[in-house]
Amino acid sequence: MAGHKSANLLLVDDDPGLLKLLGMRLTSEGFHIVTG
Description:
This is Two-component system response regulator (Sigma-54 interacting regulator). Residues 8-36 form the Response regulatory domain. InterPro entries: CheY-like_superfamily, Sig_transdc_resp-reg_receiver. This protein has 1 helix and 2 strands, in the order βαβ. It is an alpha+beta fold.
């Protein structure tokens, strides 16, 4: 998409598996992910 800008997202959850899954999916869509 022309002009698409990446967003920074903070993902926080107590389930490490869910954080990994969401992080991979959102990263593949162009988001910059930080987990906590």
